[in-house]
Amino acid sequence: PVTMGDEPEEWEVDYIVQAEKRHKGLYYKVKWAGCPESSNTWEPARHLEHASSKVEEFNRFCREQGLPVL
Question: In 10 A of CB 41, how many CB atoms?
């Protein structure tokens, strides 16, 4: 985790594994830096505001592979 002063700790996103639309919005399956894949979690898009470059990388990969971008 990364701690920024008095702010709550943030975990660093290694990469986005998958995206899924659910009834409550868009969710991303996240691979966390320094953690095993068994620790991957589904996170709502709003939790990834500080990882927008990782979301962009994932969307670019999907477009290049001809996969839908959510």
Answer: 14
List C-alpha distances in Å: 31 to 7, 34, 37, 48, 57.
22, 9, 6, 12, 13
How far is it, in rounded angstroms, from Cα 40 to Cα 13?
Answer: 10
Is the pTM here over 0.85, yes or no?
no
Q: Is 9 exposed, middle or buried (0-12, 13-18, 19+ CB in 10 A)?
A: exposed
d(CA 42, CA 20): 9
15-51 pLDDT per residue, tens: 999 999 998 899 999 999 999 999 999 999 999 999 9
Q: Extract the tokens encoding 25.
A: 């919005």
Are the C-beta atoms of residues 14 and 2 closer than 8 Å to each other?
Answer: no
